[in-house]
Amino acid sequence: MATATSTVTNHVVACDPGEVIVTENLWKTYVMGEQEVHALRGVNLRIRRNEYVAIMGPSGSGKSTLMNLIGCLDSPSQGSYCLNGHDVSRLSDDELARIRNKEIGFVFQTFNLLARATALHNVELPLIYNGTNATDRIIRAKAVLESVGLGTRMDHKPNEMSGGQRQRVAIARALVNSPSIILADEPTGNLDSKTGVEIMALFEDLHRQGNTIVLVTHEPDIAEHANRVVTIRDGVIASDHPSPRKAAAAV
Ligand SMILES: Nc1ncnc2c1ncn2[C@@H]1O[C@H](COP(=O)(O)OP(=O)(O)OP(=O)(O)O)[C@@H](O)[C@H]1O
Ligand SMILES: [Mg+2]
Predict the structure, then answer these.
(1) Which of 4-8, 11-15, 240-244 has the highest mean pLDDT?
(2) 92 exposure class (CB count in 10 Å sphere: 0-12, 13-18, 19+)
(3) What is the mean pLDDT of residues 62-83?
(4) Residue 214: how many other CB atoms lie within 10 Å
(5) 55 C-alpha to center of ligand 1: Å?
(6) Structural domains of the chain ordered from first start
(7) Ligand 1 pocket check: which of 65, 110, 219, 236 to mutate, most ligand atoms within 8 Å of Cβ?
């Protein structure tokens, strides 16, 4: 199994109050036996509250690695990461899990739902981890499932739902703790284009409600929903500009 190197610099990041995600010189090196894979080689990224950012780039360029670091699923090998004004680059796994549960909603390409649990139970899970009592859990999980249009599918298990419905359960699960930041790694990658459009409408609503959204995609049509497109190549940011739609609206 791969392990990460633990060399971490002692530099402290400066971020202004409007910035929710600030990375400075972020490196991630996976060590596999004799071989080192430098998945990220010094990423500097600053994202302000309520931005909607698409991350694009070739396969293997480091997009998921970056999302995992931003989402506190993993720690950097070097560099600093400041999330909502707190330096989180040197926290323990337990501390990272606590921050992740509170601040971040993660949506994956493969939905990552518990196969034997109902939609309601899948959405309740993050609330079980943070100790919410059973009555409140049910009330909140039902409300968020209704908000993504699944009020009539709460008792269905993942294999009793369509792909789009499964992804909506995953989005409901990401939202149940009311995180301010939603991270999505190819959320439409396993969906047909019509269902993909429905899921993107849901992200647009979340953006309008004030959330910060960072979304990885291979598809230019999907990236156009964002306000800003960041391209990664070989572990570094190759370009960073307003999305064509946003640029056109500004003219
Ligand atoms: N756990 C790991 N152990 C070792 N190497 C890894 C690990 N995860 C990713 N890598 C390597 O790091 C590099 C970046 O991988 P990453 O998954 O971030 O790419 P990606 O841009 O998300 O690609 P894709 O578009 O195919 O999802 C790749 O060369 C990959 O092989
Ligand atoms: Mg990936």
Answers:
(1) 240-244
(2) exposed
(3) 95
(4) 26
(5) 15
(6) 51-72+91-250 (3.40.50.300)
(7) 65
